């Protein structure tokens, strides 16, 4: 139900794709991708045919003498036209030979194929065609990006107040500012037949596992998709168990978290147009130990991690345990508590399991509503839903006071987890346990917990066991996970 092992081979990364550049050029335009004419007239006819009905595609002719001149092709919205005119096009006094030497001072490259030529123009580069020469492209990309600001979803009291932005190059530079080491390597990929999204793979040489690096690289190279707009999309395509509810990677918008992960031998994927970087592999304890604050005391970190583990158990098991005890085994409760719960449920028309499912479902609806709405409206929804609706439901006799306490405790403990993906995973598991408890009581709850444990033990993230270092047991690493008394996060892993 939760884990589905992917089939072998690269078929799992393939999908039905629409024609790409090569097919479009050959079938629609009847152009051989490897042949670019030196003649200006022939090149202009083809490039105009390619960008037919593209309103922001511009063609300019710059005469240099009576017979010779140069043609400039660019897309106005994504090209820095002002910089282009100031540095290149206003050099009317330069002849063709001098202009060639002037261009060599800029970031340029020759168009070796129609695909690279067209793609470069779509990225904001300027195509310059001199008479009798092969066209080349000059980097005049117009960069429109927001400044580096404080992270909005991963807040911390102490530590740097810098978060990633939507530009992958800028995000890579933020990481390099934290790791000033030549062993920080970068591999670049282009993903998406339509979006052509830049993806950067970062790792620390001598820290990363070579088998892991080869596995991730091969999956990225064989990945085919039309559009890539977020790191989560690429994560779903390359993980071991795409149908599992438990996250096998984690996303972060903090450069400091990313640098720590690289020092632990992990791989980071930086995706253009996304403010989150993907860190892999990720185990359950990796997701728990992500700290929202850089505590100065080591025992503070130990307490927080133990608190999060207890919170996972409470948020997942408490509603199902309440259903099992009240509905099937009230004799296991203390007499006073059993009488109090029975008195609170005296006039409730619903059975205990239906009451629990209704309240947990209402809780999830309120959470989703508060997340999707603007911040000022979301806070209002949370207050109104938590106080007014809850109190009205109790006064109307639809739910009991005890169920409100159980639901509130479940919500509070679930939000102590540092990543939303992990919160969502245990939220789904909570429904499974409630249903098992409603059928078989404590015995059903035990079966549900055993099944979840089996799924977690069977799960792996890029070949690493999901419950590592608890299973397979590594006592030293497990002790270091909870009682890290020294700052050894950047120690080379053994």
UniProtKB/TrEMBL annotation:
Broad class of the protein's primary localization: membrane
InterPro entries: Spore_Ger, UPF0353/GerABKA_families
Tagged with keyword 4Fe-4S: no
Keywords: Membrane, Transmembrane, Transmembrane helix
Membrane topology: Multi-pass membrane protein
Superkingdom of the source species: Bacteria
Localization, UniProt: Cell membrane; Membrane
Annotated transmembrane regions: 306-328, 348-367, 376-394, 400-420, 432-454
Pfam families: GerA (PF03323)
Family stated for the protein in its record: Belongs to the GerABKA family.
Protein name per Swiss-Prot or TrEMBL: Spore germination protein
The species this protein was found in: Sutcliffiella horikoshii
Lineage summary: Bacteria, Bacillati, Bacillota, Bacilli, Bacillales
